[in-house]
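Here comes an entry:

___
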Amino acid sequence: MPQVVVASSVGTYRGVDAAGKRTPVDESWPTDGIPTATYSIHKAENEAAMDAFEADHPSVVVTRLRPGLIFQRDAAAEIRGLFLGHLVPMSIVRWIRWLVLPLPYPFVFQAVHADDVADAYWRTVDQRAGGAFNIAASPVLNPPRLARAFGMLGAVRIPLGLLRGIVTLTWRLRLQPTDAGWIDIAAGVPIMRTDRARSVLGWEARHTSEDALRALVAGFADGAHVAASDPLRGSWLGRGWAGLGGGCRGVAGAFGRTGSEVSARYARYRFPSRVFWEGTGARVALRFARRCEKGSAMVLSWSAFSELEGPGGSGMPDLFGGWFGIAFGVVAALTILTTLTIVVLTLYRGKRMADRGQNPLTMQEDIAYQAMQSRTLAPEKPLEQRLAELDDLLARGVISDEEHRSARAEALRG
């Protein structure tokens, strides 16, 4: 086995703060992951395993691709199942166009179309290129660009802690399958430089990141999905180990939602390869690599195997099926969106009042007090008191005799 190609991720990189996102990093950035995100921890462990394998087998070319978020239209149902769950209908993208998108300021990350990722995989095998390669398209996605891609009115800033709290609460209530670790990934991953992929592989993204996201959104609106591929249909474990026992006689494996173009190109070039579930660990692929004398072994991300649960599978039991599930999902989605909208508008109005020197928590009381002190709402003084006040002003020289006579006459008339 002269080459091992591993599907790593931007999630393997050490996290940065909001200021750190202004400085793109290359492939030498530390790969110890984001400690609060399980996915990132797993990717970092896989990178460490590949480091050890590369040191023990210097004759094997080890290639690692670290793409940003991978989008394509046909993956809509699978992504919905993995990150939103079955309670959220895919057509939700049609209902949120009149809303604003509430996201934290650090929500800045990169994405790439699945076809461009497929092209990068093919180039690494075709050229036997070793080392790590960052794969991402332009431009960098930020909250305003995300809102435009979803067709929403715009984006407003909310605290990162607020979003983490909402996600954690709904995750613990089993309303959706995404824990707060994914929020930390979106907010903490660095921005990658892709110079090495361009210079060494000759790779160039044919789709912008916005185009890739818009394609995914269109897939949500249309309910797009793909049927399970042969290696992922039925007993994946039995078929996987049967493939291992058969040595290197297989053809290119199915690449799930990372792009069918990969399989077609591998089959055309007749590179023997296998696809392994990340849950079995990188060691399985490495054992297979030792048994093969030629060809490539490919380790794909667990997220590519959502088809194990069927189209749109998420690993969570489908407790709400049929029309009840649809109705429950609609009500739950509307409730969450309404709550988020109220929270965002409240925060926005509070910030505006604070900028004007008002305390949002006591604003109504302050207005009521000022109104009570105004002349409009103040109770009318007795005639004797008003005349006494005029006499006092005259005695102190504040008003003249003529002003005193005029004011006194007006008080007596009124």
Summary: The longest helix spans residues 322-355. DSSP finds 15 helices and nine strands in the chain. The radius of gyration is 32 Å. Residues 380-414 form one domain.
